Amino acid sequence: MSIRPLCLIACGLLCSCSSLAQAAEPAAARLDETQRAFFQQYCVECHGAETPEADLRLDDISFVIASVEQADRWQKILNRLNAGKMPPDDALQPERARKTEFLDALSQTLAQARQILGDQKGRITLRRLNQREYRNTLRDLLGVELDVRDLPADGGTGTFDTVGASLFMSSDQIEQYLALGRRALDEHFARAPARASAAPGQPQPFTAREEAEVFGNRRMNGLFKRTKEMHDNHVRWAKEVDEAANRPENLEVAAQLRKKAEKPRPSSGVPYATPLLFYHDWDQIQGAPAPTEFGFKDAQAAFFEELQYQKFFSYYADYQLLPNRDTGAWLLFYQAYRETYISAGETWPAGRYTLRMRVAANESAAPERRFVEVGQRGDDVSDFTVFSAHQVTGTLAQPQIIELSVDVAANGQRKREFAVREKRPNSRTAEISSYFDEFEKTGHGPVPAIWIDWLEISGPQTSRQPAAVSLVAPAQDQDREGARDLIERFATRAFRGIRPSADYLEKLLALFDSRRSLGDSFDEALKEPLSVVLASPGFLYLREPSAEAEGGSGSASGTRRLDSFELASRLSYFLWSAPPDDLLLALARSDALQDSAVLAVQVDRMNADDRSRQLASGFVHQWLGMDRLDFFQFDFRLHRGFDDSTKAAARDEVYETFAYLLRENLSLRRLLKSDFVVINGLLAGYYGLDGAGVSGDAFRKVSLPAGSPRGGLLGMAAVLAMGGNGQFTSPVERGAWVLRKLLHDPPPPAPPNVPQLARLEGQMLDVRQRLRAHQEEPQCASCHRKIDPLGFGLENFDAAGKWRTVDTYLLKGGAKATWPVDPAAAFHNGPAFKDYFELRDLIEARSDAFARGFTEALIEYALGRPFGLTDEALAARIVNRARDKDFALREFVQALVASEAFHSK
Amino acid sequence: MTMKTPLFSRRHLLRAAGTIVALPALESLGFRPFAPAAATTTTAPRPRRAVFLGFGWGVTEETWLPDARVTGSNYTLPPGLAPLARHKSELTVVQGLANKFANEAHWGSTFWLTGANRYAEPGQSFHNSISIDQVAAEQLGTSTRFASIQLSSPDGVANGHGPGLSLAWDARGKPLAGIENPLAAYHRLFSDETAPLAQRQALLAQKRSVLDAVLADARRVQRGLNKTDTDKLDEYFQSVRDIETRLAKDEQWLPIPRPRTALTEPRAGLAGRDEIALMYDLIAVALQTDTTRVVTYRQPVGTLLSSLGLKIAAHDMTHYTTGDRLDASQRRDRAQCELLAGLLDKLKAIKEPDGSSLLDHTVVAYGSNIRSVHFLDNCPMIFAGGGAGLKLGQHLVLPPHTPLCNAWLTVLHGLGIAAERHGDSTGVLGELQA
Questions:
Q1: Is A750 in CB contact (< 8 Å) with chain B?
Q2: What number is the ipTM of this complex?
């Protein structure tokens, strides 16, 4: 994503080249002359001018890579070397160390060449709203929350989702915009009555309440009684079968059947042996009574009923002894009554509703179990979609009321049901094993952790952010002129202050007319042209005309200065991923936004606004490559605590920390090392910071005890979890991430066609031994000698970010191998560290590199184009200005917004 | 409106893109809307169909690729291909193919059907060109309701496919969106509008007015844009033209009901093996009913593993070493081949009016740009079915680094498309032709 500073190139790779100031010709990557001798000796020797091997001449190839063709030629050479094909086995082989150096230099140079050749020279390509921006824009415009997952994913060519060149349009997509716009308008109009009827503070018109004991206890009582009854039946039946079996004429066959019952019978669905199977074969015993006489459908049914009794009756019986069942119910961990739920009534309008529940935690349950999840049920326990997790701090003596807001969609769009359950891994196997682990140990199921009195939903709320444009026309204005007026106001707002053309408005009005003539109501007919607005280019694209097209009316550099409306949009999509609000639009209309002091005040206001959370989630998520967190399932057997809710909290920690730094204008360096964390109750428990007295769901700053490994990105569970595969850690992933994101020294992309090391197959090796193999082959060592040591330094964190001192490897058959973690290593050609803490200090000491990488990412995200060579000076200026303020986070933003580039197209 | 000759203008574009196609005879430019498959006589040659199935992360080469020393028809199917045994005479396994520009070790699908050079365009860090299915659709798609169908799954990038929204890229090298689940595909292909004809005609007219309106705004937006932005906005214009083409087609197909199928509406939320199996069912029926003649499917890998009860991330699996990873990788191979064998069964069981089978007139291309691990040469490749006149029942081992696009060019020729080249092709593969 980034090009390293030219000064670095000048010192390292372009040592014989001129300085930056003289660089009049286009920059080009150059393979260092020190590699000439190697190339000459091991490549050109055979591929020279005279009778070159395989007709491939390499003597004439330039060390300066200035064209795509040259880059492709060098790529081929690199690929052959990486594949271990060259030099061929029968030729003179280079020393490992020299080959490693050559591969390192060539792959770095080639990566640089690709960046230089792909440089867009500061050109910003017309940007379409990406998925996030589109959703936020509709929310601002219409006050509705839309599920935009129907839209195709954005670009995905490895750039930020704001980069115009990587955002495409297709016919399917236009049709989806039309459909989604229509859906948003339907919801908007569906919510209109709610907005009109109630003022804030008034009782909410629609309420439903579910008393948990009504359903929960009835179900549990029923299960208890039925299981008991079926068991009693089985006892009576078994007794009579036994009696029959004991008659002399049956003794022989009964003995055989008892023997048979000692073997599992998978064909009958019983993969294990149980004496119960004996009764399964009752019909082979003369005079034995049929199970149907005892209330069973058949022998199979009798068998399974009794099995249920053996495994679950104690669970149901224990439930009957639980307190406070007269006013509430206990949520079970395993089946039967694992969640309670409530639905919005069919006639209720769409909108934002309040969900409340009165709950208490069982103080004898483990603290990490005292959480509930709110979400939507699926077909299976593992299909539960978690919306949010909440810590339950209330007790039976003093229950607590948890309140949250939920979106109820227009009827028929999506499920309008909300369920509550104990927090857990989203996996059926996890549920089953949790139950039976406990059952086999104690003879009882897991003790219920959550008591719930009631669950209530009411609304719609009226304080919800109002729509930017009111589409409710008073009765007297419900004519053609009224429609024209509404359409024009809506389109102008949707186009972020830009007035649509008259021709366009006429066509929109014609659509309204046509719907009217077909008998649509005023509102209904209006939806047609309005949904077209939401699929029009003026809405979907951030239009910025350029000087080139306007005959060079801009500055001497060929760029054009943005007008105030364009600037307002660029600013608000940068800081909020949302359209400009009323204030920004007003400042644009008066051109006050062009005043640098006014602009700076706006940047501060926007950074302090809640909407700046979009910068935290949108930008930070992509900058740090956090999509990897969703690449794999976490193995609940190894990382029981890292369930979906914990993962979500860990992800939020990264965003919340960034948001906190932005809000408080603290130093970017706090992301490298810090004496505080920004966490909620769930993470406090997960990190073992229980002593800090943090409880509840809100994230807040928490000071760390001395010697804590937390504080800074490297101590965050989300970052550490990304550096693994859900089971085990990957020092390679972690090391590469540190190089890429923290040290601004990205390794080249994983090269194709490098043979895998097969030598170590089947051997029991610790992480270090396994990775030491990387140093053996030059094609591996050229990158891994830099990557792996940094990963070793983080080995004290397991694959879910928990601190450990011993590493474990599970062998086939369940045996375990363990060894103490050894985090000591050294930077390649750099200082050594003896543990994680020293590594963290060494990384923090490189905060200039970190600030530089952050700045390049921020430029790319804000301007919507890749960081290019032309941005060198800009990046240097931003870093310098921020450094003067100890890298205070808002300084980066202010410096970027104040720059010429931010104001230019 | 100004764009009444969409096919013609797109054909011009085609020549500018990665493929050069000789202009076909004039009649193929026009629609034959009232002569869909069912109405043609049994003596007419059966239409040719093409299906491209891409599976991202490659295969376990040790147990998937046949022994390279035994070529021809007497080779042994390795364990990874064993589920295809009953179709051995109906398919050919090809070794030695590669896209010479492929350098991205995690991109198994982006350039698979295009053969493009990512870096070909100075000043850009990403470039692609038209995919073979879209070249084929230009000609095979004129008389079906859908010129081509793109199927995909929601989890592309993490599953070894690389950038793109499906396997397909249009004439300008832009990604074509794919239908991401069987339910959506079912509705797109087979759900009939229930409204009366007159109402549907009115709806079409309304849709045209909508396009008219957005174009009016597009012209405003276009004013003052530089060349790059004009090119970008051209995607929007092109998309509108594409919708217009589709509407024109819809209009001609309006009186013809969608084909009835025995398929019932799929359950929502299917993932992995069931999802692929259902997509395969939909592909078979779409071809059978002549709803389309060109299909691409970018298959899921990660959810396939989960559905097989394998708790391993797809990328980790590809770096297999003896143990869990290798086991997962091989089970993935087998599951994928079982599914493919199922699709071939279906195509074979469907009889054409002349008594031949649908498989006789369909070419199924099955593969990935990634072989195993991070290897991008000797791409796994299977061709099945008689649709492109390929020599079947063979194990063909070509010289290393034979352009994959030579195979695509051979397929195009077999489909009756007179392409001069595709991507970086250097010629057709005579060995592959029957």
A1: yes
A2: 0.82
